[in-house]
Known about the structure:
This protein is mostly helical. The chain contains 14 helices and no strands.
Amino acid sequence: MTATSAKTAVPDTHIRGKSEWALVWDRLRRKRLAVISMAVIVIIYGAGILAPLVSPYSYRDQDLDRGLEGPSADHWLGTDRLGRDMLSRAIYSARTSLIVTAAVVVSGSIIIGNGLGLLAGYKGGWIDNIIMRVGEIFSSLPGLLMLILINASIGERVTDGVRWIEDNSILSGLVSSGFASYLTVFAAMSLFFWVGTARIIRAQVLQLRERDFILAAESLGASPRRVITRHLLPGVSFLVVLQISATLGGIAGSEVVLSWFGVGVQPPAASFGAMIFAGSGARTFQAHPHLLLVPGIIVTLLLFSFSLLGDALNDAMRSR
């Protein structure tokens, strides 16, 4: 081989590669439905994040003289029975859904589910047995019914506790902002949404802990904490993302159902479930269809987008 050909061959063997996450993103963005789903989720939740800036009215503003109006120039999506702007209520309801969903994902799936799954899979023995048996107990219970019972039984106690914090600290406005009901809903939902994540992570860790790089780290004196955080956690990160994407729609839907039953996020906080409940009923829908169509269409778009995005993400990761 000549010197010239050797020089031209070197760059071909040193092409800078992409990370696995970059490859997954490249595959994901080539899927049209995935891109559309992400756009819908970003628009709905982005409006919720920027609710005080983008909503034309406050979700509390009432005008009893203009109750149950249809779409107009002043109220693009109409008003409800109390004369509150439906568009503003929908935007603030998106913020409620985002707060509850994010809190449940962080506390239930990432912290509790991921942490217990890693611990059970790596330690094994009695620790594994206890964690899995507790998970079986929670998974054997009727989840939705238990969520309704928990929220109905401890909702008032949580509200009283938050009110006591207001009275004995410099904090104010917690009860009126709906913080107590947010806390009740996501705490109860976190009790049930960790089991699936823990099982999947545990199954993968049981395989990884027998690999040579884990045995080498242990032989070099690595502590269990270091083995779990530095070696096992990166190996299951893709499973964590897949599990989160698969549960996002279920979490958002559960929050809507709880509010529809009247045991979720409580007034004056805005919620899609409360809006759907106010617009349900055959006579109400015939006379004022916008009361049900506005929250119903938004919730349908949101849950359908989560489902499509989860399927696309699963395909993008499994083809790596």
